[in-house]
Amino acid sequence: MAVWVFVLTIFNPHPELLSMTKKDWKDITKDVLKKMFKDSAVKRTKFLGLKKKHQFFGRLT
């Protein structure tokens, strides 16, 4: 008999994250990144990676 266990991970964003504008993302600093993504996998992309992704996706919108 197989037993399946599902783990539900709930996305619980930092409150400031929800109110960020495109300009905020463009002007984000390393300190803000550390604070907002303290316990998040997003921090693995590091500051320059996040900035590159913002530039790329910014061109698409």
What does this 3D model show about the protein?
With 61 residues, the chain is mostly helical. It has a domain at 20-60. Helices cover 51% and strands 0% of the residues. The chain contains four helices and no strands.
Q: On the 0-100 scale, what is the average pLDDT?
A: 78
Total strand count, please?
0
Shape: elongated
Helix content: 40-55%
Rg, Å, rounded: 16 Å
Largest sheet: none
Secondary structure class reads mainly alpha
Helical run tally: 4
Strand portion: under 5%
- Strand and helix order: HHHH
Instruction: Quote the distance from N terminus to C terminus.
Output: 50 Å
Oligomeric composition of the shown chains: single chain
Contiguous low-pLDDT stretches (5 residues minimum) are: none
How would you summarize the topology of this molecule?
Elements lengths: L14 H4 L3 H5 L3 H7 L9 H15 L1
Care to give the gist of this entry?
With 61 residues, the protein is mainly α. Helix content is 51%, strand content 0%.
Notable characteristics:
mainly alpha, 61 residues, 4 helices
